[in-house]
């Protein structure tokens, strides 16, 4: 890559990653509809573009692998061959190798060549055809008012610049140039640029260019259907977007956070000073800050489809390795999330998709015996829910047996018999999140002994979200994830216990109520509040913190949501709602259950943000 600036290499890495993410989904779609010409062209262009960029940067392993795929796809486009299962397997494997090569380039190391057997897997068996496989002849051009198609133009460029495939015979002379009034489309222009900048496949055999024909009228040709003219692109369109270093965006978000803290401080002073002019000024600042905060957050938002696009390939690879048939459905890929959250959700969702196919969906024979369709369904969906985004992974498999989980937990010594007997069905389902818990009899490449699900839960909690399970035997399972739209600023409810103030994520707060101490009861060693329709378990924040209890004529209870269940948190006082900026925990508190972060509140004091799930589990 000598002579190539770091900026050009960085641009190639970003664009190549986007192409690789799309190719996985496009290949799965093409495999299910091999006659989809548009999808075939899209896959061909993906490999072709990767090869061109890699050739310009001198990344030979990528060029060789993309060239092998491109040759096969090109023959299929020309109608000289058909794609078989081995070719789709080779194409999907090649994406893994291309990803590894791209990671090596990004890390400044030399990429490794793909194995020869993978290159050979792209080979085509000879098929009966009127002529041997060779470069597609370029037809004589129609009258000047007609446009040539993609294949004709690419073949023309190949012959003009000597990029015919190795071993191919010289093709017919190129067609005469079109008049200046005709425009070429985007694909033609990209192909022309590739050839002009020397991105042809290595080892290409030069083909002599025929001398120009005399300016005589060409022989009559069959009229071609009219091609709509390409859409004109305004000159200013290229400047409507700009690529910005994400570190700059992060710095802007941090500054917005400081502005939010200053606004909160002024709002606190406003209520204390009771000055009319100050009140109007702070009100204007509040509105402007909220609008600025919203605008800056939108610049960091990305569709979750960026993560979803990799799952058709993941689902296909896992299903084939397990000899299962699975159809993946994706809904709501346009739902937007903070960029950091989109990237952080990738690994947890990969675990859930793989486990849904491995543990959930049954083998085809078992599904047919149970009266189900042979092909299993896995549904991945996302939708915005206020300040949160809900993501769901659902399968129509065998479901999860709570009693089996209870028995496994006792067998592995993760729970004593008495504790296991007290668990309800939902609590039994949550046992799969325990470290080391698994119902698998043997370790496989897909699922090890409980490795993964505990990591999924931990990662979701780190993101300020929650995960819950719903399952029905014989009908399938649903994993529901809720994560905040952004990790930077969080709407909270401020509560007080003793002299300190704590923040609860507002999305987890259901209601605030008051109860007399005498109305409380005890059940299974816990304090509870009988609310007629149900019994609400209680947790005293003072006791949880180790603060001396106090007598009160009326208790303040904040009802919090945890999955499908609720519990009440007894606090001294509710101070109200406030948007806070999430800061990392002090080193002395990192890793302690029940704490999610820290923040500065309006009066300038430090407040700890409580983790609702960790609070309940450790209570």
Compact description:
By secondary structure, the chain is of the alpha+beta class. The chain has helices at 6-32, 37-57, 60-77, 85-106, 116-121, 150-161, 186-196, 246-273, 276-299, 305-308, 311-321, 339-360, 364-369, 402-411, 417-422, 425-429, 453-462, 541-545, 612-618; strands at residues 301-303, 326-331, 336-338, 376-385, 388-395, 466-472, 476-484, 489-497, 500-505, 509-515, 520-523, 526-530, 535-540, 555-562, 565-571, 573-581, 595-600, 606-610.
What does this structure look like?
The chain has four domains: 6-214, HPT domain (Four Helix Bundle (Hemerythrin (Met), subunit A), Up-down Bundle); 246-300, Helix Hairpins, CATH 1.10.287; 303-484, Heat Shock Protein 90; 489-618, Beta Barrel (OB fold (Dihydrolipoamide Acetyltransferase, E2P)), CATH 2.40.50. By secondary structure, it is α+β, with helices and mostly antiparallel strands. Helix 12 (339-360) packs antiparallel against helix 17. It has helices at 6-32, 37-57, 60-77, 85-106, 116-121, 150-161, 186-196, 246-273, 276-299, 305-308, 311-321, 339-360, 364-369, 402-411, 417-422, 425-429, 453-462, 541-545, 612-618; strands at residues 301-303, 326-331, 336-338, 376-385, 388-395, 466-472, 476-484, 489-497, 500-505, 509-515, 520-523, 526-530, 535-540, 555-562, 565-571, 573-581, 595-600, 606-610. The strands form four sheets. Strands 10-14-15-13-12-11 form a six-stranded mixed beta sheet. Strands 2-4-5-7-6 form a five-stranded mixed beta sheet, covered by helices on one side. Strands 16-8-9-18-17 form a five-stranded mixed beta sheet.
